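The pair is listed for reference:
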Amino acid sequence: MGLFTGKKGIVLGVANDFSIAWAITRKLLDEGAEVGFTHLPGDKMERRVRKLAEPIGAKLITSCDVQKDEDVARVFEEAGATYGSIDFVLHSIAFAPLEDLKKSFVDSSREGFKTAMDISVYSLAIVAHHAAKVMPNGGSIATLTYYGGEKVVPGYNLMGVCKAALDASVKYLAYDLGPKKIRVNAVSAGYVKTLASSAVGDSDKLAGLYEAVSPLGRAIDREEVGSAGMFLLSDLSSGITGEIMHVDCGYNAMGSPGRALEAAKG
């Protein structure tokens, strides 16, 4: 028996087989989980998700527009009808208009800000609200964040501000849903090359930065962040809620370039 034998859940936001959400999903499946999926509206995104979800026998594959309350409600009504109840939710949804993401934050537009915050932050709140209705026995909700919400990462711009709000949302949702025995946490992954990270300025330089500065002297791989996400969604983390778990080889712990500075001096 695996850690998730008999457990069912929903993954929102898988983009392709290189995404962090899929790395976590693979770990869930390896431990016996039954997983349903949502995808962005549109045939192209549906095909992408079905390509991954159908081979594993997913019973629920449905579109979800997180900017529409009624659509999020429908998704979890379908989840209840399909599975009876669910035990976990993985939220992997973030978006900012490209023209705003590529600008310095001070130059971002009001509409771009509203759109980015709505999709990247409020979506977690509305998902948690409706997911709780089909989690009568409690469970776990996890989302994906990034260190750019804690400290300035040039090129992350508007999305960094959104991740800061997401991190705060995790803590408030953990408090709100605690009485229902629902835990809410976030995984803050170090640099992994994904479709999302490619939109960040100078993203290709980040891997080298992590290798130079992190205590472990390397960047992470998808397997590591997949295992961490699976852990937060499992009963092994039953005493953990409201946490931002960094999976970045210790990069976030550094207050200076560390050994990279020593190497530069040498």
User: Anything to note?
Assistant: The CA atoms of residues 3 and 207 lie 32 Å apart. The chain has a mean pLDDT of 94. The chain has one domain: 8-265.
